[in-house]
Model the fold of this input.
Amino acid sequence: MNPYGIAVTLIVFYLFSELHARRRAFYTNPVLLSILTIASLLWVGGFSYESYMESAVILKFLLGPAVVSLAIPVYRGRETIKAYAREISIGIVAGGSVAILSAFYIAKILGGGGEVLLSIAPKSVTTAIAIGVSEKIGGIPALTAVLVILTGILGNAIGVELLSAAGVRDRIARGLAMGVTSHGLGTARIILDDELAGAVSGLAMALNGVFTSLVLPYLIEVLK
Amino acid sequence: MKPYRGLAIIFGFYTLGEFTSSSLNLPIPGSVLGMLYLLGALLGGVVKLEWVEDEAELFVRNMSVMFVPPGVGIVTYVGLLKSQAIPVFGALVISFLITILVTAKTVELMRREKE
Done:
């Protein structure tokens, strides 16, 4: 096994993380910039994706235990979940379902088909879970990963401003909407403005991941 | 050997989740089931938070870099993405707008009723 896949991933990601730490802007998102940079390097250098993945696959494998570890933030937030149980459950069922159905049907109406529809359906869920769901339902995990990150970037860039423009002032509603729609990147943005909304957003992200992974595989059978 | 206890618990629940998912042929990812098992074990007091929190945080904090290798796989689908650019990016933006506004308005309405 060659170490180049891991080395390239870590070096490129580290450099973009340093840039992001200095700029703190949505367009310096280290994940998206790393994906684009490595994909270009492979293309320019004439390397195959398989040769890159030969060692980089170890990093991807660690997503499994990372998803299991998400139990810890949910456990820590159990008091918040209890306090806002009704809002959180209805927000996640409504928002989570709208996210799946709107993505699926709008892509279909605009002329999309097959694997593309399956890949875009979990786009509002935290990346690790979305990749797992996409794999399970027959989507393209790579496409899902990129769409999830772009959705997160949208939320990070305009989510807070959009909610304010729409006149949404309630902190719980703002937090839930950001977490359900734009997962970790949305949470990272709203927590800068409002700690309570940020905590609710983080929980909404984790719970929407669970909700979507439980519902989407069965829902997709009906939608297909 | 504290870190090994945390890692053993995390990988143990992950394996249990994958095992359930594949043996019962469930469409739910094994990692999500493992997360639910660990959450249940924490709530039930079988696993103590301090046994796993440091190791779990290491995974959660460093999760971003793990999205890069699957994302790079997009190079294999450049043709597909080009031919379906309008449905993909149109759905992405419109669905984002609908989802964030519907969620926020639904929850806000509930909160107003309560008051």
